[in-house]
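new request in #modeling-help
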Amino acid sequence: MSIHLRTRHLLDRSFTGVGIVSIALLAASVLLLLAPVVVRGIGAFVFVGTVEHRKVQLDRFGHGDRAAVQAEAAKAALARTPAYTAVASFETWLATNSFAVQQQYRAEFKEVRAALCDLLGPMPDKPMPALVRLQYGQTRGDRVQVVLRDLLYREEWDYSDPTRMGTKKLVPRAPAFAGTPLAGLFPCVEQHIDAMLLPRRTFYWQFLTDGSVDAHFFGGIMPELLGTFYLTLGAMLFAIPIGVLSAVYLSEYAREGRVVRLIRTCMSTLAGVPSIVFGLFGLACFINTLHVSPSKSVLAGSLTLGLLVLPTVIRAAEEAIKSVPQTYREAALSLGAGKWHTTATVVLPSALPGILTGIVISMGRAAGETAPIIFTAAVSVGRPLRLWEVFSQPTPALPWNIYNLCTEHVAVDEIRHVQYGMLLVLVALVLALNLAAILVRARIARSLKT
Amino acid sequence: MMAPAKRSLVMSARAGRLQRLGATAARALLLAVTLVSVLAVLFIFYFVFRDAFPFFRLRGFAEFFGSTRWYPSNAQPEFGAAAIFFGSALVTLGAAIVAMPLGITAAVCLSDILPFTARQWAKPMIEILAAVPSVAYGFIAMVVVAPLLQAHGGALIAAGVWMVGVPVAGLLVVVASDLLSRGTVSARRGGAQVRFALMLGCMAIAGLYLLAKKASGLVVPSGTNAFNVAVMLGIMALPTVVSVAEDALQAVGRDLREGSYALGATRAETMLRVVLPAAASGVTAAVILGIMRAVGETMVVWMASGNAAQIPHPWYNMLMPVRTLTATIAGDMGEADHVTGSARYHVLFAMALSLLAVSFLCNFVSERLMWRARRKLGA
């Protein structure tokens, strides 16, 4: 049974179409992955910042002009006085009223006052709260909108339709307080919010250099960045010498036999071990048995990460060394150089670009891995480590803290911008390293072609 | 005229001996350094075995592999991990369903269909997918995909049904109408084919419409579920599958392809009936390596699988949350480390042993397949 020629051509063309569609799906998944990261991650650096943000920057980090910020704070405080007087007069009015009236307004007034403190900061006449996160109002324009909506509207659930799940409705709070001194608060805040908070476009590049204040509510990601840097550097310090020397042995000195086959099998097994098992091994061996450090530390984490990237380094270095033309070695040998001398002065320098490519790609892998460092090096809250503390202290790290902030933090929605900022920095770091490797590889290809 | 040499041109016996000693020492040192990776693997296996064994001695095998009751922190702890094994298997199956067709078609397209300039753009894209850290995948799965699934899950699945169904149905309709119109006289064959195509096309569209309607009525109770994780794991496994499969397809060489074209086959027929079967071992190895990546992945499943240690109600219902081995190890080790020596600590090593066994098996099988592919193609 044969198919008509026209149909065969149609099938051929649709096969091509299917191939193109699959590549397009790949591109779409890259876009799905990177677009939110880039767009919202930039929001951690470039955003609409309020006077509260500038106050935090001045008080906690010393950035900014003291006189200008204090003048702005005074201007904002002036704009807020109508709101505060409304609240104060409502409190006195409520206190002079009957218990029944107090019961009617108390719960909702508590919510309104909490939202107002959340928005503008603590009330001027009340004592300063202990937690830093409560000592300032909203610092970012997008959060201001969310909290303002919380102040002006109440959430209610409508369960009237029995066939569907409950729907959320926003009910304005103002009618509930009509006739009381608080009635003027809501239109006042709604119309003068810009004067109360003085929003301005901000470029917060210090996000990369500031430490975090009060569990990332304010500040930047410097401890995490430094921790990732230490871990990656440490991992490469272990993996590069061992990897390059192993590659030299395997490609120059080893004779194909049972020993070399065993070594290669072990290396490919090591490459296939799941990363969480590396973490468990690091915990059980380096910390619980060898006691390289009293408990978690950057040293243990670097050892584990070094083991993780070792197969990649060995593979890349071996390929690079094998691709050095045999004529180079023969020329050196004919000039009287010994084997080690040839390797060290002729082969390795020629293979250097390829080895560098492998090293850079492994750096990207080591920087992004989370599972090996969960039990061996990473903590959620910590200050930037000094160099000698690396041997005994754990450190925050970008990948672990991204996980921690988006699952185990107390106010996950309020610090979304920090999570996206960390993610952008990590992804940008890894992609920059890979881009460097691609460029090096292109340069090798070009030099090999000429 | 050259000045007389300061050193003798012939090495003294002692210098020769020293040099040979140096060479042997260097070689021994290099061998020792190479054995570090061997030692590392051996130690990994030793430590995982050593700490997994006490669990089986304390609690036996039946409960761990057979029971679905996972309550490690009860007063009377129960360590039934069958549901967790099932969760791992389910998300791996889902990842294979996503990665296998997509990866193989992408590899075929990359090696034979795309022109050179398009290839230069497609390869970096695949490298980007491979380079992005797994915590980024997990974050997007949890923060972007999960709310989308929960709010509009049914609509998304219906759209997927249409997107996949229309091309497939179109192809099938054309082929079927062609085969059915075999019998008619040559002059009227065109008209008969069109009639058959229209009839089958209407049936196909009706069927797709019903399927899509049923899909859009689906309610997704939780956005963090096996489906979410399976799609993400499939995307993560794609670069491995594509690159290894592409290598296997390239290794087939031009002769087979050119022979097939010379006999009048179209490109599709060449790829499907000549090249892919020739590269079958390599492509299978690629899929197995991709699956290995999916099994060992921790962060994506920890963040986006829902972490419910239960077998979903019909076993194939991927819209329910599940729990995998890797997420259990990562999540429970923090508390288990405080009770080192108890069954709760050792059960995590038992799970790690299972993972290690599966990855070793996958590695072994894929190595054998690739060796067989190299031998078959006469490397």
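bot summary: The longest helix of chain B spans residues 13-59.
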